[in-house]
Design goal:
By secondary structure, the protein is α+β, with helices and mostly antiparallel strands. It has seven helices and ten strands.
Amino acid sequence: MPLTLAPAVPATAPDVPERVAAQVEAEGYCVIADVLTADQAGALVAEVERVEAEHDIAVGANEFEGFHTRRIFNLIAAGEPFRDVVLEPTVLAAVEAILGVDFLLSGTTSMHISPSETPQLLHADDGMVSLPRPHPATMVTTLWALSDFRAENGATHVVPGSHRFPDMPKPGDRHDVAHAEMSAGSVLVLHGSTWHGGGANDTDGSDPSDERYGLSIQFVAGWCRQQQNLMLGTPIDVVATYPPRLQELIGYSMFRNVMGHVNREHPRALLGLDGTPDMVWDKMQR
């Protein structure tokens, strides 16, 4: 029998950041219900389909990425609606409650799981972080349901409490999982060490809802390396059109007034903006 997820936190609750941070610390995950309306989620599905068609996005070429799954990377470069999602204030506040200030955007990816897809191998998104497990969160993954996530169409599998396990999952081992079933517009927030994976899509494709659309928006602590190199992957003239908060999130920012500077200038100087930082060194006194 699949495990059962804890009840979702309503996006309208007054204490969302605190509740999400507490549950992620305790269980390794938390669902925030109804961050987007159904219409907003549907509009993003249409945007994903547009980009897939324009760029002829192919299905994956290995078992991990899936042979019936399409992924679009650096999604914020594909259109303004995706940038708006990254800046959604309720989710950003929850991420800050977990990672602290000056965190960075690590990646934006769409995941379109079609019928006949097999379950993804369980994994932890911070598996490349060379710190002994368990450790405090250095990464937060937010998985956005753009269509209803159901057990039969590939709802994400989660192993509650696995962020506290001392080891990573081994291929072939069996584990009890919870199916993160969510309505379109809800968001699953994961500690980077939590074991999870896309579920199998066992539907027959006879209904449009059999196609599972989701977004993975990942964040890291300000001192960590991002998974997707968003600064090099986005032309600087395009970055110049981004809202200031998004510019900061992709790397045109500094962590604790020192990490990330460019020849003692703030990275935003590359965008033609004020580049005189308040360096930490200026505040150090005997």
